[in-house]
TrEMBL record:
Intervals holding ANK repeats: 459-491, 492-524, 525-549, 559-591, 625-657
SMART domains per the UniProt record, alphabetical: ANK, PreSET, SET
Sorted UniProt keywords: ANK repeat, Chromatin regulator, Chromosome, Membrane, Methyltransferase, S-adenosyl-L-methionine, Transferase, Transmembrane, Transmembrane helix
Annotated source species: Oncorhynchus mykiss (Rainbow trout)
Domain SET residues, every copy: 813-930
PROSITE patterns: ANK_REP_REGION, ANK_REPEAT, PRE_SET, SET
Transmembrane segments: 113-133
Keyword S-adenosyl-L-methionine: yes
Full protein name: Euchromatic histone-lysine N-methyltransferase 2
Pfam families: Ank_2, EHMT1-2_CRR, Pre-SET, SET
Molecular function terms, GO-annotated: histone H3K9 methyltransferase activity; p53 binding; zinc ion binding
Cell compartments where the protein resides: Chromosome
Positions with biased composition (Low complexity): 47-62
GO-annotated cellular components: chromatin; nucleus
Amino acid sequence: MVRKTGRRANDYQQHPLLCQSEPLQVKIDLFVSSFSLFLRFHNLSLPSTSSSSISSSTSSPSGRAKMSVFGPGSKALLPPPSSSSPPPVPVQTVKIHRARKTMNRPPPTQVSLLRRWLVVALYFFRIATYTVISIKKGISYYTEVALGSLDIVATDNLTLSPHHEGSDAGETERLEELPLCSCRMEAPRVDSASRQPNRLCMATESVNGELVGCTNIIQKGETMRPSSRVSLIVLCENHRSHMVKHHCCPGCGYFCIAGTFLECCPDQRIAHRFHRGCVTVLGAGRGRGMGTGMLFCPHCGEDASEAQEVTISPSASVATVVTTSASSTTTLSLPIKICEITNARMRGVVKRDQDQRPPQAALAAGTVNAAPPGEGGVDSVGPSLCLPNGKPVCPSALPPGPSRAALQKAILTQDTEKRKKLRFHPRQLYPAAKQGEVQRVLLMLMEGIDPAYQADSQNRRCALHVAAQRGLLEVCYMLVQAGAKLDIQDKSMRTPLLEAIVNNHVEVTRYLVQSGACVYHIEEDGYTGLHHAAKLGSLDIVTLLLETGQVDINAQDSGGWTPIIWAAEHKHIKVIRALLNRGADVTLKDKEMNACLHWASFAGCVTIAEMVLNAGCPLSSVNMHGDTPLHIASREGFLDCVTLFLSRGADIDIMNREGDTPLSLARSDSPVWVSLQINRKLRRGIANRMLRTEKIISSDVAQGYENVPIPCVNAVDDEGCPSDYKYVSENCETSAMNIDRNITHLQHCSCTEDCSSSNCLCGQLSIRCWYDKDHRLLQEFNKIEPPLIFECNLACSCYRTCKNRVVQAGIKVRLQLYRTEKMGWGVRALQDIPQGSFICEYVGELISDAEADVREDDSYLFDLDNKDGEVYCIDARYYGNISRFINHLCDPNIIPVRVFMLHQDLRFPRIAFFSSRDILTGQELGFDYGDRFWDIKSKYFTCQCGSEKCKHSAEAIAFEQSRLARLETCPELDTDPGLAMLGNF
């Protein structure tokens, strides 16, 4: 590669191009000749002119560095046509370049070719002019880098885009100023870079709004840049290759290697990449959208409206680099993958062939997907600056909007205009930030002014305070990047974050929170940011603060007010709902003992009052004056709140400390007074009526299968009579049980009377006859371990009325099924029942123990406890009698006894209940379910019998567990009889 070395300013007179005018004239003639060849190639004619006329126009004393071809007032720059030749085509285009509708248009092909040679002419002419001006000023000029020297497969020529056929002649107006790129131009070596060993590459990549620095070591000291708006940088070989391939945005100077950006493809082998915010706009000012002005590629000047939106996903194979964001510097991996390409007009998925891809994309195979167009999906970074502390100021760190536009404009002005050497005082930063002078603030920060300076005249407020107060996001961003303290306090202990919250600036609040500002700071009056946000009703700020997880949702200020109290007073319903969803405590009171419900009734918002009541705020809460919420609502005359409180059972006769009731506080001519009067009369009428009357919902749940009817009543709720089972009076079978019912196998007596003698064989089988003449159990009957009872059976010779036939005679006592308060349905006596009387039999479905293990509902299982052979059960879940409703009592009044009647198969005894003591009318019947039942069921519910001897209540279970824990640690306590008695209790 051939390069020209730069010369110092005092040596420019020795340059052969400046010592005489001939070399400059030769260079211009060479340009004209090459340009003529280009026009001849496209069958166009060059307007007849002389080299002197072009030379004179080149050396015009205007001194402007920008060359305008077809701008306003540029007709004098066009050479006049000769009298012998007809007017050339370019002169016609000048006449119709204004934005007017006309039918006199040249053919589309002619206009497109005309526009193409105008662009190329501009490109060649600017290169020649810039070189001459640079030499005269003593500036090191550029040399074009040969693509072959960088080992690049495809070379980038100046073939113009074919997408402009059919454009009208008015498009020539777009050429009023087209700054082209200098990606292929190289400046001389930087001495400082060549002297330092292991110098890192100065390239910066833009990846989804984040700036990523390169960590590669440079090999060459020559500098490059994509345009004159970007500073010269030294690059590694990889980024030099991307620079030459036009992968560096001329607007901001950031490389478009990964992320989302626009791509102009004037040729199949060329891909010009740039950000949406850096597109060249002519005719209507600089705009970010595709609908304002005329858009051109900043690389080649082609029409940018057809630019394709490209998304290159990072891959995990790239080394770790330093990533610079808007607020911090982190370390992460920046991967590079194949690009996903769609055009900006959503024509669907655009797939390139391998020979049509850019050189870097053609090396890998990947999937090309469509990406939605629009500003949100484009990595529009724009220009940036580096502050003296090393942190960047980049517009991409801000959300799209006026703040980003203002910051971008300030950076562009700072970068393009010559900075004046001014001296500033730190106190000048505050008024500049207050007025929102972004350019002035940026200039001060670039000069090193301390952003944390606090002026005594401003109550120790800094520039960040006033910027947050005014909601100037771009100023806050610059100050934070420059090193402003996020939690700096003024004289009232207020931070910039509190200023933003108090003035309801959501974006500034979000930025400061994301930057690390303290969200739980307390100012002078005990207010936090959540207090202010709840008071203002800013749901966005409240949600933002709550999502941090660092704020105390129940924090109380100097008056004892919580955020939910502030929101209730100012009737912010959405804020109340958000605070309640986060667990705000509505029972907390302020210094005057007012709860949240007091403030809701004072504000008269019935919606908030109902929400607070549903959250658990007591309606009977009183403040230091003795006022309830009903007192306050009655005094203020809020009928809706009064109606709500009365419907929830508020007491209208309660008096405050001054002896006033809610009725006396209401105006006598108001609807509130009428409502309170009506409610008082209704309450008095309800208080005088009887208690809830028992409702008979069934006259006989046994449906006539028992000797006496068993009614069903309910005085608790509206539950109907149970109907999820089939009432049966005897045990039934759903599968063969093989019960020995053979009458010849029965042992029987030969008594001819009432079996009262000791010679009765059935009584001898039971050890003795345990029934007295009144068909009750004898007093000496063992109630703890009841013996088996063998009643007389079908094979006996005695009468059916003998005293040894009690259970088989059926139910004789009057029982009632009723609804209990805590235990569902229960059974109680409708008559006095003496001790030892037969109550009923436990009847159900006979099943095996294996079948019982697979039943889902085991609440109705009764184990028959056969010690010899297989065990069977009675399940009263689907088939049963009144006994299925008898509840558990830790102090039972009935006991189960095994009885044999119609058969003597010991595997299937009948379970009969007898009273263990005298039972009075209305008392509930109950027996002990046993410890095996509660060992399993205590995990799901506890005993509700209410007995003093209850062993399975929640308290008793907790006491037993603590006793067992003590025994594990101290086994010697197991011998303590006192502790054992406590445990049994």
